[in-house]
Amino acid sequence: MIPQPRTTTSLPRLLSGWAAGAFGFVVVMLGGWWFTVAVGVIVHLGLLEFFRMAQSKGIRPATKTTLVAVQLLLVSTQLASHGSWFAGGVAAAVLPASGAVICGWLLLQPVTGTIADIAASVFGLFYLGFLPSHWIKLRELPENGLALTLLACFLIVATDIGSYVIGRRFGRRPLSPISPGKTVEGALGGVACAMAVGAVGGTWIGWGWGWLIGAALGAVVALFALVGDLTESMMKRDAGLKDSGDAIPGHGGILDRIDSYLFVPAVVYSLVTLALPLPLG
User: How confident is the model at residue 37 (pLDDT cuts 50, 70, 90)?
Assistant: First the structure.
């Protein structure tokens, strides 16, 4: 999440932030099933928070069905990355099959489900299943998977830092009523910082014109990290909540920490795989 200006930084917030960062770095470096399990635990907790927000609005999502479908999607994505044609077929079938199962489950309830119930369930599957599964796809790329995953994470962190520092020092114009603490100047600072880190990262990976491609990737990541941040803020605002939960001391809930990380992997994975046929090396 792009931090909002604060006058002080509490010790629990600082320690939990460093601990979360260290944990993320370790599991990315380990990769494989360690990484998949870590992603699975995080999105499971995030999905519980999302469903609690939906339930506070009187919505009755298919909670258990969606939770199981998300884990099935993550596991099959990991298996498919190692060439399992069966797992690849399962991963492709999870979204449409789960949609049908969710509708069937809601039909069998004593009180028939509503459009909102279906929408919340399917969006939860997309938001905290399909999108995060691209972290696994990105990490398991045969070429530069580790480097690209680390770069994507560093770009999000750079966006956070740039937006916080520039927004706190120069921020004057509010960016959106959804999140009053964010400013246009802070958003531009986040983009600029991500572009600078991306330029270094593109050169480090060894792409031809690496600095230019990396800077462009940094700008895209910064924009989609901001979209992820504001999307979660919009949902919290609608639910009348300040934080999605209290799982992380000083930071709020799981969703409050991973919102910027949800849309980014699908965008980075798509851009990289589309660009691979080009002469980038």
Answer: very high
Residues 6+ apart with CB under 8 A from 91: 73, 76, 77, 79, 80, 133
Q: Position 43: which residue type?
A: V
Residue 64 CB burial class (10 angstroms; 0-12, 13-18, ≥19): exposed
- Better-scored residue on pLDDT, 6 or 81: 81
Q: What is residue 281's predicted lDDT score, i.e. its pLDDT?
A: 45
- Strand-pair partners of 183: 174
Helix, coil or strand: residue 40: helix
**Do 149 and 138 meet the contact criterion of CB atoms below 8 Å apart?**
yes
pLDDT of residue 249: 61
Predicted TM-score (pTM) of the model is 0.88
Q: What are phi and psi of 183, to 5 degrees?
A: -125, 160
DSSP 110: S
16 near 228, Cβ under 8 Å?
no
For 75, how many CA atoms within 13 A lie in the half-sphere containing its CB? 10
